[in-house]
Structure formats: structure tokens, C-alpha cells
Amino acid sequence: MKSTDLVRNEEEPQRTRRTQRKTRVTSVLLCDPLRPLRLTLRRWFRGATRALSFAILAASTSALPGAQETILIRAARVHPVSSGPIENGEILVAGGKIAAVGRSLALPSGARVIEVPGEVFPGLIEGGAALGGGADEFRELTPHLRVAAGLDRDSRVFERALQGGVTTAAVTPGGRNVIGGLGVVVKIRPGRRAQQDVRVDAFLSASLTAESFAGNMNLRGSAPFTFYHRIPTTRMGTVFLLRRSFFEALGLALPAGLEAPEESTLGQFLDRSGKETLAETLCGARPLRVRARERQEIEAALRLASEFRVPVVIEGFGEGADSIGALSSSRSSVLLSPLDVSIEVPFDLTRPALRDAHRLPALLDAAGIEWAFASGSAAETPLLRERLGLSLRSGLTAGRALRAATLDAARLLGVSDRTGSIEAGKDADLVAVGGGGPLDLASRVEWVMVEGELLGQETGATR
Amino acid sequence: MRRSAGRTFAFSLALSAVLSAGAARSSIAAPAGLALRDVRILSTRDGQLIAVPRGTVLVRDGMIAAAGEAIPIPEDFEVLELAGRWVLPGFIDAHTQIGARGECDEVSEAITEDLRPLDAFDPWDEEIERALLRGVTAVALSPGDRNVVGGAVTVVKLLPERVPVPVASREAAVKASLGRAVLGSGSFPRYPTAPSGAVDLFGRWLRASPARSAGEGAEKARVPVLVRAETRSQAEQALSLLSGAGRQAILLAGRSLDRRALDRLAPSCPVVVGPYDLGDHELLLSSAAALETRGVPLAFSSGGERRDLLTSAVLAMRAGLSRAGALAALTENPARLFGLEGRIGRVEPGAAADLVVWSGDPFTLSARVELAIIEGEIAARAPPLPQPPKLEAPKKPAKPEVVAR
Amino acid sequence: MNCILRTALPIALALVSGLEGMDGARAADGPIAIQAARIVTAEGDEIAGGTILVESGRIQAIGNDIVVPPEAQLLRFPDGVVLPGLVHPHTTAGLRVVNENLPDVPYISVLDGIDPNVPEFRAALRGGVTTLHVIPGNATRFGGQGAVLRPVGALPEAMAVKSPSALKISLAPPSGETRMAHMAQLRRTFDGLHTHLTRLLPPPPAGLLSSRPATEAELAALIGAPPDWKSLDWDRIPRDKIEEQRRPLADLVRGILPAFLYCPRAADVFKAFELMDAHNIRATLILGPDGYKAVPLLIGRSGLGPVVIDPDLVQYEENPETGDERRILAARAFHDAGIPFAIQTRDERGGGRGSGQVLSRDPASVLWYQAIRLAQQGIPRADAVRAATIHPARALGLDHRLGSLAKGKDANLVVFSGDPFDARSWVDLVVIEGRTAYRRDEDPDLRELLRRPERKF
Predict the structure, then answer these.
(1) Dist CA C440 CA C415 (whole Å)
(2) Does C7 reside within a domain?
(3) What is the pLDDT of residue C384?
């Protein structure tokens, strides 16, 4: 049995051809109309049972020894993020969860006390980075491939991210494939066998950046024996492929211009599981993320969003200052790179539109658009806190920047019931730093706690 | 030292004399069986060491008829006087490509489940005799690591210069791998090119497998899958997919999963480890002991040509593996893994007479194989050791005559 | 007439450009008084709420109770913090190609290759750097001569503070060559120099040897041993007879020209010491990523100035067998051992666009950001300031002139809008040799960045 047979046999040979309809109407009708209702109900239910389940969980804690400890943390300042900073604040941790946060909490007997002369804030959340390497590049359209399947959880990138104060991360398949696959949100606990995936198949990642067609070669070039001889080789090709895949997934007749000659010349096709995954996503099963940084990439993404009436999460958005109007009408949200937002980082004089990147937080806030921070690359994730510190030069307050990397990111990733702020019932994911403010560049991470387990309290020249 | 070397030499001569006499006799009347007399027997049963300090092994029709102390030897049996040498069951290499001369990786496709490495096996390969003289009598011949599903794993006895016959009629296992070597790239254009693609393909193959014809498919579906994983995450993915598909798994941890990774993984399926080298870190060598403590069935692999299976076991012993565990991992465990329990891998009545005669305790690495016997026939015989030259004592100078005056 | 123009014109241009500075028009040589919330001098304690008076290019007075002359221009920064102008000890800013193709080119000078119009110099001013040591890169054996520059001036000659500053020597073997061949070639170069110089010596008086010049063979016999520089009588070697291409090397072994010696690995440090001892070289060591391992060697060495440490201030060391990774705060290792060190940056240039007009987006290409990271590792702030000011100045042999704020020194200073270790602070003012070189409110690049007044911030 050939591997290509395995993939092709899953493809439906006959497409359900429907008569000509406008896509705007079709995408709504094609989707299960009850789905949004079901999703909302699910969310309410989850929220309502959180308080109840916490009580149960507190009693029946997980099997890990570290998480059993009851710990009282006393800090010069506690930043819950969901509310204002607390001077001389205290946090009580029990069973891996936050039991209470405030001032002068009662000290339970047998509890360990940790004094922090500086600040304590929620574990940082990486909004999106390719921490598991890239996607399978054999084809450009791989919606069904799951990052969770290929992720090496013992990889050093997680250790380093944790040392930098990042406790939760959305792992993306990178930007090399036009549709890279299903991302996963993980709680970073290196070496722990306990549940680490917080949300599997949490989002579908697509890419309109130059990365997606870089490395592809024209069929007319030499040595046509590598699979890199394929579409797209231009930005037009990328947008074409993405748009066509949406039509195919939804089972719609392809409009003129989108029909392709035999697939062998394009080398790109969507198999059945790919179509299913993409169709589900377009109907709201999970967010659709599109990597787009340059202005025309963002515009293309927003055009697709409005054509198919699907909200998108735009990852990058560096040149998006002029596209904010189009964003709000499509209920889309944004993941910004903290480096783009900092001014002092020398700017690229050849990209005029990038100049306004430092204004994006204020513009997005003014337009009421949800946004959070995403580093984009595995090398940047351990430096997230430092990049946040630099982003303050753009005028962002420390509180706002911190929120963008904690609670807002948690909401965007759909994990805000578990983490993202210091509130009773949430996981005890905390970071302690020296004094001067949570994002003070001149202070470093002293320790990190993930679900009640303390990691890293060494001092001195070696860690 | 010299004395025992001399004895060995003498015995080799005697042995060959006896055997040639036996051969001459065979034209007249073949002996009814073979008796190995005055041997130290070491074997295992269900993980327990069975040692007989001084005993006899009787072999008839290629099977072991009796083994123990004070066993009477029938008249018409050919007798090998082994004067205290050790007899162990032949080792079974749980994963190797020996004899295939590098032709075990079909790279054109990622899934090649109908390939049989037996088709590439060359019985005239010198490695076979060398393996015999290192105590290995049977191997699980397996495709390489370049395919997600590579093909059949077959257990074959190492009979040099004979047509290879698998020990069991059906394949012992199916080889799969999620390691780096299966991944294609721009210069090696083949799907998959990333770990997520490999896992996806493996999953699809598992789902598609039972959908084949009832007879052959059902048979095949009962065969265990020997799957290589290079990281803990790959192992988790593979094992969960296999258990989800109701397939039996054997984890080929090789040299990649050290004790820490295996502790985190906590597998309940059998694990094949090795090969180990002298320079390996304690963390890697102690994984065998850790698995033994957990009660996980363990076997060793030499990983291909030119690697000694026994060395891996001895190094694992140095890092904590028990003697019984090491011997079981070399003999009865791989037999059980591949569905051949009781047929090979033990020195007890009813098992095949795959026996190896050692000059001393094999686990000291200073003993050598003298004879390798497969199904009652001598498959390999060690050449005599070179003897140091005999030095004559210098003649004493003659005492001068003293003439009294 | 023509030749007058040819000589006079460049000088005139240099003068004019030197006078004007980058942003033009603060042509005052008159006194300037700067009042700020804090003055960090990099020697001794900070001064709270003090004033600095500069005139004629120098610091005239500094303290709380100084007398400000009425004609002085008074600049008040009520929340501002004054620091000495930052000194970057080892950069390739301004050079488009940082390594020559040939391995042994001690005679080239960066002044011939610097483009004063590259954005790195404007970025340096924006970042508070008043002194840059531009020197060839790490990929040649004898890379050439560097120059200490101020980042203002239309021509490299106008920018130069000290030229030649040092000779770049690298112990990193070029690709394809082994370390052994590299070191052997270094030795051969010095042997060749010695041969050349001894040949220039006037012949010894008659009686010892004949009055003819020494033959090849005799010289070769002399050269069998490593060169003995101490016994070389420099006074008797006519300088103009020394081959021009070898002159910088001669200055090196004579002690006139120092070296900047790049050691890619910690193991190269003792090779560097060998070279320095054998050939009488005064050198500043530029260390590589694992330079922290050489700390015990550096402690034991007397007379060594500050070392320049690798721009990656945090190092990771992997155990190849267990896969474990150790995180090492490399800068802290130097500090804890009491070794004075200077920091440098990662390459200031970005890649990819080809025009050379792009700056790196990596914050580690900004010198002050590196200093903040020193504080992050637990190094006291005063020492972090020193690592970016007086220590690099000492490594360049210019600490009598710059690197700290003291009466009589060059008036090179930076005013930050707030605590310099707070990322929200900006550089408001840069003064170089008594003249305003940069003001944030007049920075054309920042203005370009922050325009569009309708989008209020």
C-alpha cells in the first residue's frame, strides 16, 4: 500500500456540486446553524461549573507531589491582572490552584511560605510561536496535520521559555505552508507526564506571508525532482490556493478562474480529512489564524474573512494600522509581535507602513478590537518578558502590556478559565521577579510556578 | 594459563577427532543424538535464573531431550566431553539487519508493509558466522528505519550457507518507525517531511489495516508492531495510536530513550533497547535496569552489523541490570515477544537445540564461544587460539670439574 | 593652484563638517550648563541634583554648587539622568564589508572604508553612544587598523578621535584552515618581520663579521630561534626603510600600536598570552561565547586591561549525553571574579535588503540595552554603567580623555529622560566634545516615525 494511496483513498471522488449561489449566503447555510448556539451553551456551562469543580479538585488533587503543597506567597506587589496591583499582596496556593489572593490572608498550618521582595504576576502566555518545529512541507495544504502529534515535549525550547517566565504557549506550525495545520495550546511543564495539552487542535493556522512561497520553484526551472516544484511561487498563488481551498472545503462550485488543471501540475490538493477540518473551522469549530504582516497580506486576509464571513485572528499585523476599520467589521482579532511595537528597535526605512506599528496597541484599543502578543518564533519566546519591557517605549503602560501577554492572550486562546490571571480557582501559574515593576528590564525572573510546582530558584553566575 | 590453553588445544584436537570419527561412523549408522557432557548449564525460565553447575544436555532430532544433573547418556549418542564449559541458550537479537547487506531500506515509499527483509538475506555473509561465534543463534530480521511502516519482521536462525527458513510460518511482527530517518526533505522528496506528518501517516495506516480481506487481514492484525521512537513524545504518540487501534506494541527504544525518558513514559509494553557502547552515559545504560524494576519485558538489539549483542547486556548489567534479567533479555524474552515462547531461547526439554558452548562465564566478556549448535548440528566452531611459543628453560652451564691437587 | 586646492579643500571640508556636527547649527563653542536630577559620573558616587558645566570641548565643573557663568546656555532636565557618553569598544559600524579577503592585511585602515552616512551612526547617537571603536571583523588574521570615532562628521577624518587605534588580530582560523596552520602562519609573520627588520640594521662593526651584509644563511641561522624583540635596537632601524605593509606590525611589536586580539574560544586565551609575551604586544582581548571559562586565566594575568566580552551575555552549555542544558550568566562570571570588562553589541546591521540601509531589529544591537541586561544578571548598576563607559575607554587607552565625567575630560555626555535602566527612558540629549550632537526633539528619524499628528497617542 503506497502512502499516497492512503492519503488519496480518503478523498471523496465526487464533489457535491451545488448550483450557483453567492458565497456569503452559502457559508452560513452550509454550516450547522446550531453550532454557534451549542458553543455558547458549552462556554456558559463550563464557566458555571468552574467554581464547583474547583472545590472538588481541591479535595482530589493530582498525583504530582509538588502540586500537593499548600504555599503562601508574600510579595511586595502582586499583579492579579484581572484587577489592580496589590501592595504587600499575598497568594494562597493549594492543590495546584489559586485558593485566595489579597492581603493578610490566613496562614494554614503546614503551609510553606515564600517571601518575594519584588513582584509576582501571572505566568506569561505565548500567543503563537513555532515551538515544535515546522509543518510537513510535502504539501502546501495540510489542514488536518496536528502540531500536537509531532511535538517533542522534552525539547529545550520549553525549558528556556519557562526560564523566561512563559508558562502557557500556543504552538503553531509555522508559516511555511499555506495551511499549516492544527495548533495546540500547551502548559509548559518539561519532564512532566501529566496533562500538558490545555487545548488540542485549538486553532487552524494559515499563512499569507512571503515565507509560504519562499523556497518553491517554478516548474520550468531545472531539476524538477523535488516536491518544492509547486504552486505557490508568488503572493498571488498563495491567496489563490487559500481561497480555492475554502471553496473546496465547503463543497462549493469553483468560480471561474479558480478551477485548476490536473493537480499534478499544481501538486496541491485537499484530501477528505483536510476538507473536513477546514470546513469545520470555517463554520466556527475553532479560530482560523492567518499569518500576515505586510499590508497587502493583511488586506488579503481581511478580504477572505469578509467573503466567507469567517472571523480571523491575524498573527503579525505589523503594517496593519490602516486596516483596523476592516478588522472591526469582521469580528477579527490580532496577535502583535512585541518587537514590532517597540520604537527604539531600529526601524526598517524601506517599509514605510511598519513605522506605525508602535501605534497599533492604542489604535486597536480605540477600535475595541481584541488583541494579544505573539512572538512568532521559538527563539523569541524565552525573551517575551524582555520584549514586553521594550514595548513600553511605545507608550503602553506596564499593566496594559502585561494584560496583553496574560489575560487577553488567555481569552484569545480560549484558556482563560484556567490561566491568565491570579484569581481563585485558576491554575497557580505565577512568575516572581525582582523589584521595579513586572516588566522592568533590569530585574530578572527569580522563580516560576506552574500549577503549584515551583521551578528554578537558583542564584549566582550559573543557573 | 598455559595449562588450560594446552588443554583447550588438546580438546579441540580431540573434539575434531571425535567428530570426524563420528562423521565417518555416520556413513555406517548415524548417532541417535548428541550429548553434551560435563557442562555448566545457564538458562532462564520466566525471568528466574536456572543454573546447573555440572550436568548434561541431551539432544535428539534437533530438540533438547533432557538437561540437568546426572542424566544417563544412551549408548548410541555421540558424546562431547566439554569439561566444565558453559552452555547457554543461543541469544536472540531482537532487531537487526544482519545478512541483508544494507538492502533493508526501501526509500521509494513511506509505507512498504509487504516487504520482507528475508528476501534480501544472504546466507553467505561473513557476518553470520561472526554472530554465531558471539553467541547469537537467531535474529529478528527487520527492515531499516527509513519507512513509517517498513515491512515484516521475521525470526530466522543463523544457519550459514543454507536457505534461510523463518522459525515461524507467519511474520513475527511489523516494523514501524517515527524517527528522524523517515522524514523526507527537499533533496529526498518523499512524504512525510515533518514529525506531525509521520504520526498522521502512521495513524492512517493503522485505521486502514483491518479494512482488508478477512482472512489475511485478520491474521496480520494480530501481529505486534515493533515501532521505533526517538523521543518520549514520539513514543507516546505511537503507543497511544497502537492501543487505540487494538494492536500489540513493542517499543524499539534503541539508543535514543534514556532512563529519564523511559521513566517519564512508563511504558507497559515490551521494550527493545540497545546497542550500547563502552563510552555511553550512565543515564542511557541504566534504562535496562529501570525497565526491569518496573517489570517491563526487555530485549536487546544489536542494531545491525558489526555490533555485539552480549556487550550491550553486560554494559546494562554494569549499570544495574540483574544477571537473570540480562540473560532473559537475550534469550527467552525475545522469543516470547515474537510468539516463540518455549520453542527457542531456553535450555529445557522441548525447546529447539540452539545451544552455545562458552569457554567460561559469558558475562565477563573474557570468555569466548567455542561451539554454536543449531537444532543439534554444529553451525560454527571457533578456530583454535594462537599458542604462545614454548620457551625452553636455558641450559645450566656444566659444572667445571674440580681436580683436586 | 590645483595642488593648493587639492590639499586645502579636504582640510576645509573636514573643519567645516567637524564644526557642524550631525544635526547642524548648535555652533556655539560657548559654555553649556546642564542641570539634571542625577549625574552618574562612572567614577565615585552619583551626584544628586547637580549641574555640569562644559566649555571649549571640556568639562569645566561638575557638582551641586558650581557657578554657572551668565553667558552659559542652561539646559534643565528636572527628571533627567546624565551619564558619560557611552563608548563602544568593538564594532564594524560604517564598514560595508567587514573582513578583507586576504588573511594578512595589517596595513589597511578602516578610515578608508567607513561610510559616514550609514544609519548606524545616527542610531549610535540616538542610543547615547559618543565614541565608537570601528575595527575590522573577526575573520582575518591581521585584519587591519581600527579607528576611534565620534559619530558626527561628514568625512571619516573628521570623525576620527584616534587613528590608528589598534591592530586587529584574530585567532579564529579562516574556513578550511586548522588552528595549527593558523597559529603557525602567525608565527611565520612575526618571524618574517624580524628578519626584515634585522636586515635593515646597519652592519655590525668589523671584526665580528666581515663588513659585508649578513648572508641569507647567517640570517636564517639567527632566525632559527623565536625572534628576540627586546634586543632589537629600534633607534638604529630607519623607519622609512621599513616596508610600508609591515610598518603597523613593527609598531605593534615596538609597543607603539596596541592590538585588539579576538579569541573565539576560551582555549585561545592562553595562546593569546603566548603571542603577547613572545612578541611584546599590548593587547585587549575580545572574547567569544565561552569566554567566561577563561576567567581563572584572566585573574592570574597581571597588567591586562579590561576585556571585551561576547555580545551574548547569557550562554547555554549542553551536556551532549544527557541533553541537559545549563544556563550561564556569562557577564556575571566576570563581575564576580573582579575582572573589569567592557560590553559590545551584536551586529548593528540587518540583513537581506542589500542596500545596507537597514538596521538590525535585534535589541542586542543597542549598546545601552546590553548594559541594562547586565543589571538583569544581578550586576550592580554602577558597574553596568562602567562596563559601557570607563572600561571600554580604558581598553582603548583613552580613559584619560573620556569614559567618565570629571573636570578636564572631554565633554562627552548623555542625558536620559529618566532612570537609564528603565526601558521607558529615552536619550534626550547627546553632547560630544562640548557641542550638542543630538537632541531627541530634533531627531529627523524619530520625527518621521512619529509623524501623523492626527493619530494622537
Answers:
(1) 10
(2) no
(3) 97
- What pLDDT digit, counting tens, does each position of C290-318 carry? 999 999 999 989 889 999 999 999 999 98
pLDDT of residue C11: 53
Sequence spans of domains, chain B:
2-90+357-381, 91-344
- How large is the average pLDDT for residues B303-326? 90
Chain B residues in contact with A175 (beta carbon < 8 A): none
Q: Is residue C445 part of a domain?
A: yes
CATH code of the domain occupying B2-90+357-381: 2.30.40.10
pLDDT at C373: 95
CA proximity to B45, closest of B342, B360, B372 = B342
Nearest to C455 among A342, A347, A359 (CB): A359
Q: Which residues of chain C does B258 touch, with a Cβ-Cβ cutoff of 8 Å? A: 322
Is the model's pLDDT at A54 over the cut of 90?
no
Q: Does B319 touch chain C (CB under 8 A)?
A: no
* Chain C residues near residue A443 by CB distance under 8 angstroms: 375-376
First to last CA, chain A: 51
Distance from CA of C157 to the nearest CA of A (A): 27
Instruction: Tell which wins on pLDDT, A147 or A18.
Output: A147
Higher-confidence position of B342 and C413: C413
Task: List chains touching B (3+ CB pairs under 8 A).
Answer: A, C
**For all residues of chain A together, what is the average pLDDT?**
81
Number of domains within chain C: 3
C261 and C168 assigned to the same domain: yes
**Residues C155 and C270 placed together within one structural domain of the fold:** yes
Is residue C23 domain-resident?
no
Residue of A nearest to C349 (CA): A346
Q: Which amino acid is at C384?
A: A
From C386, C401, C416, the end of a domain falls on: C401
Which is nearest to B188 in space by CA: A141, A225, A269, A220? A225
Highest mean pLDDT (candidates A398-412, B64-78, B87-101, B118-132)? A398-412
Enter the C-alpha cell of residue A373.
502578543
Closest partner CB to A149 (pick from B200, B208, B231): B200
Structural domain of residue C104, as residue ranges? Answer: 86-178+248-401
User: Which of C120, C449, C456 is the mutation pick for testing A, counting most A CBs within 10 A?
Assistant: C449
Of A350, A441, A460, the CB nearest to C372: A441
**Alpha carbons A202 and A287: distance in angstroms, whole number:** 7
Interface contact flag, A1 B205, Cβ < 8 Å: yes
Cβ neighbours, 10 Å, residue A36: 12
According to the model, what pLDDT value does residue B191 have?
Answer: 85
Q: Which of A342, A441, A459 sits opposite C376 (nearest CB)?
A: A441
Residue B266 touches chain A, beta carbons under 8 Å: yes
The answer to whether position C387 is within a domain reads yes
Q: Residue A164: is its pLDDT beyond 90? A: yes
Q: What does the pLDDT look like over B41-100, one tens digit per residue?
A: 999 999 999 999 999 999 999 999 999 998 999 989 999 999 999 999 999 999 998 887
B193 → closest Cβ in A1, A9, A137? A137
Per-residue model confidence as pLDDT tens digits over B197-224: 999 999 999 988 764 444 555 665 678 9
Cross-strand partners of B228: B177, B252
Q: Are residues C360 and C454 in the same domain?
A: no
In order of B46, B153, B272, B299, B319, the CA distances from B329 in angstroms are 11, 18, 9, 4, 15
Asked if the B91-344 domain carries CATH number 3.20.20.140, the reply is yes
Alpha-carbon gap, residue A444 to A422, rounded angstroms: 20
Size of interface A-C (CB pairs under 8 A): 111
> Which chains neighbour C (Cβ–Cβ under 8 Å, 3 or more pairs)?
A, B
**Residues A277/A143, Cβ–Cβ less than 8 Å:** yes
Q: If one looks up domain A124-419 in CATH, what number appears?
A: 3.20.20.140
pTM of the model: 0.83
Answer positive or negative: Cα dihedral of C217, C222, C227, C228.
negative
Confidence of residue C118 (pLDDT cuts 50, 70, 90): confident
Shortest distance, CA A229 to any CA of chain B (angstroms): 10
